[in-house]
Amino acid sequence: MNCRFAAAILTVCLCCVSHADVHGQVPAMVEFSALGKSQRGIPLLRLTHEMVILGRDGWMHSLDPALPESQIRETNQPFDPISAAELRNELNGEFRRGFEVQATKNFLVVQPEGRGDRWPKLFEQSHRAFVSYMSRRGVEIREGSFPMVAVVLPDEAAMYREFKKLDIEMKRVAGVYAGESNRVITHDGGRRSITEATVRHEAAHQSAYNSGVHSRMSETPRWISEGIGQMFEPAGMTNARTAAQLSDRINQDSLQYIKQNFSGRDDVRFSQAVMQLVSDDTLFQSPDTTAKAYAVAWAMMFYLAERESDHFAKLLNQTSRRPPFRSYPRAERVKDFEQFADCEIFEFSKRVSWYVHSM
Length: 359
Ligand SMILES: [Zn+2]
Description:
Blueprint: E1 28-34, E2 37-46, E3 51-55, E4 60-63, E5 73-78, H1 84-94, E6 99-103, E7 107-112, H2 118-136, E8 148-153, H3 156-165, E9 175-178, E10 183-187, H4 192-210, H5 222-231, H6 246-249, H7 252-261, H8 268-279, H9 290-307, H10 309-319, H11 330-340, H12 345-357
Parallel strand pairs: 7-8, 8-10
Antiparallel strand pairs: 1-2, 1-5, 2-3, 3-4, 6-7, 9-10
Helix pairs in contact: 2-4, 4-5, 5-9, 7-9, 8-9, 8-12, 9-10, 9-12
The structure holds zinc ion.
Keywords: Signal
InterPro entries: DUF1570
Signal peptide: 1-20
């Protein structure tokens, strides 16, 4: 997610987005203009030059209220999230010729006409497996406020055109979860095994942000969110028959990376990477270190999920409760981690290293 929120929190009229506050009142919506149309939504953050609004359709908009084109107007209407039927109509209008919208229990899947139920099934199955895996480990799950939208474009070129339209600067990917739109966007023109692994990764982000495992309004350290994305790439994670076996839940790409790039269980560089990931997100920002960041993040989250599930649940439950629109400084990240994992980072990194090298 990439909003421009200021670090300081000013007027956050949060309460609960879809629930009445303690006085029984639901915060009122504003009308605004974004993406070329007039919309309504709930303001989450009000600064002099930035307003963050959650639209009825689940989009998160960041607007400058001082600009006339934002056209922000107060209403006295309570927030009412869009219904699946209404959203389906909107998607039919947005994706016209050659597309169809298929509904499942939790998703609206936009796809090229006549592609059957492969994609809807993949999204629905991934979400259910995510909810089940998390619940069994004590992670708090809540019902999402919006139907989740997945957009499957016919090929890679069409997907990049859609990225451009939405200002998404991603290259060499098979799909993405776009935080502002709350959509997964992928394409149907690549090698099935690679695309499906990416879709399971991106769908896990979407499930996490829509079930309260992460908050869309507060910062989640990248190693936590990407560690979860990596965890759900293996097909075995979404297949009830094979998910029972540990070997089917292992992300083989991440495991191979670690075995090839770290020299055994006591490699001090592994501990350094763990410390860096807990402290800040810099390893994810340089192309030279992203592969390492994803692999080590996977190892940390997978170890917690499989071996210390109470710490895994505490880490996720507490991180998602952080105050909205506030930065998460390094010292706080380190202190929180050592408290949630009940262990110093160095000791933790040794346990993770031993665990993955024993696989
Ligand atoms: Zn990811």
